[in-house]
Specification:
The protein folds into two domains: 105 residues, Rossmann fold (3-Layer(aba) Sandwich), CATH 3.40.50.10860; 196 residues, Rossmann fold (3-Layer(aba) Sandwich), CATH 3.40.50. It is globular. It has 15 helices and twelve strands. Helix 6 packs across helix 12, helix 6 runs parallel beside helix 13 and helix 12 packs across helix 13. Helix content is 46%, strand content 14%. Strands 1, 2, 3, 4, 5 and 6 form a six-stranded mixed beta sheet that branches. A six-stranded parallel beta sheet has the order 9-8-7-10-11-12, sandwiched between helices. The chain has 366 residues and is α/β, with parallel strands linked by helices. The structure holds nicotinamide-adenine-dinucleotide. The site of nicotinamide-adenine-dinucleotide has 25 residues, from helix 6 and helix 7.
Length: 366
């Protein structure tokens, strides 16, 4: 059969079209029959340094969903590192399959060997569906992994640092919207009270905010109700609730045309990655409603800052103090957005891109 006769070949350019559209450097597909490993590593941009981003393990419906996810997430990491002043590029990995069925020592060590083969261009960490234990297995095969337990010189769970950054971004947003950064008496709805959401609730409770919470998981809700006096809002009523601040801390894309139409708040500031379902159009809808959006990749960078701190000998206090800049950076973005009459998401992307472009020129000569 000649090339032109092959009916089974999919001739769409779906992957390369995506790679070209947002200028990805490399995408690597890895598989190992013995362990059932099927993974994709996407390296978006390494101008600022090695691409760092966690490994997400998820039972994707199909390969296309996995590719779209890893591309979207790795690009987000480029901007997150750039705007945070870190010398890191953007990358991410996804493992396709049910974490409860596939995980084993051999599975993660094999994945570690694939990471090792990239010679430091990609550094991994934990993400949704993977744990520090999995990272320990990866570390047996490569040094290019961060987020190890503190006892092994790692930074441990990054969630408290992420929550602290989100809290600072929220306070900066309050300063911009209300003239004072106090959250006392403000009603904040935290959607998703997992690791980050729960730490955020703790910080909000200390500041005497009124806390509303929504989650699919009853035990997590019970914990924040009993320990921090939060009030539960049924998930289907999240956008009917009266609130000052909406803090998405579960999944991405909860800020979309449908939800924005219902939203009754002045500020959106949360931890979830990729909160806007559509970067451009949702940004415009938010603006039109007069809602102030604290860009997710700016205010949820605490976790990345935390692992970055591991390079010089991890210290939680240093990680926390390196996260402090999120407050001023958020105010700076609001200023730029207002003066250039653009959305806050666009203003943040512009600043991140300007740093990448500036450093690319620095590296253009020996
Ligand atoms: P997590 O898995 O600990 O918590 C997520 C919570 O969301 C869980 O309680 C879960 O029950 C809940 N949830 C799931 N589906 C939901 C739904 N449809 N509606 C409402 N709640 C739902 O995760 P996490 O580490 O707390 O991360 C939360 C978000 O922040 C994620 O989007 C993650 O990508 C992002 N993030 C986390 C970090 C970090 O340091 N952990 C860093 C940056 C960004």
């Amino acid at each position: 059969m000649t090339m032109t006769q092959s009916p089974a070949l999919d001739t769409s350019n779906f992957v390369f079209d995506k790679l070209v559209q947002y200028d990805y450097e490399q995408i690597v597909m890895v598989q190992d029959k013995a362990t059932g490993l099927k993974g994709i590593i996407a390296i978006h941009n390494t101008v600022l340094g090695p691409g760092l981003g966690g490994t997400r393990m998820y039972n994707y419906k199909n390969e296309q969903d996995a590719i779209v996810d890893v591309l979207r997430l790795s690009r987000g990491m480029t901007f997150k590192a750039a705007i945070s002043g870190l010398n890191l590029g953007g990358a991410k990995a996804v493992l396709i399959g049910d974490p409860n069925k596939l995980k084993s020592e051999a599975y993660f060590r094999k994945f570690g060997r694939f990471i090792e083969n990239l010679n430091g261009k990609y550094i991994t960490a934990e993400d949704v569906g993977t744990t520090t234990k999995d990272m320990e297995y990866i570390a047996m095969e490569t040094e290019n992994v961060v987020g190890l337990p503190e006892i092994q010189g790692g930074g441990g769970d990054p969630s408290p640092v992420t929550a602290y950054g989100v809290y600072l971004g929220m306070k900066a947003s309050a300063k911009e919207a209300y003239g004072s950064d106090s959250l006392a008496g403000k009603t904040v709805l935290v959607e998703g009270v997992g690791k980050v959401g729960t730490y955020l609730v703790e910080l909000l409770a200390k500041e005497n905010a009124n806390i509303l919470v929504a989650d699919v998981y009853e035990p997590s809700l019970k914990n924040v109700v009993e320990n921090y006096g939060a009030q539960i809002v049924p998930l289907e009523n999240v956008f009917d609730a009266k609130m000052d601040i909406y803090a998405p801390c579960a999944l991405g894309a909860t800020v979309n045309a449908n939800s924005i139409a219902k939203m009754n708040c002045q500020i959106i500031a949360g931890a979830a990655n990729n909160q806007l379902a559509n970067e451009e159009s949702d940004s415009e809808l938010i603006n039109a409603k007069g809602i102030l959006y604290a860009p997710d990749f700016l205010i949820n960078a605490g976790g990345l800052i935390n692992v970055y701190t591991e390079w010089n000998g991890y210290n939680r206090d240093i990680a926390m103090s390196n996260t402090d800049h999120i407050y001023n950076q958020t105010l700076e973005i609001f200023k730029t957005a207002a003066s250039e009459n653009i959305g806050t998401q666009k203003a943040a992307m512009k600043l991140a891109q300007a740093r990448i472009d500036g450093i690319a020129k620095v590296h253009s000569t020996y």
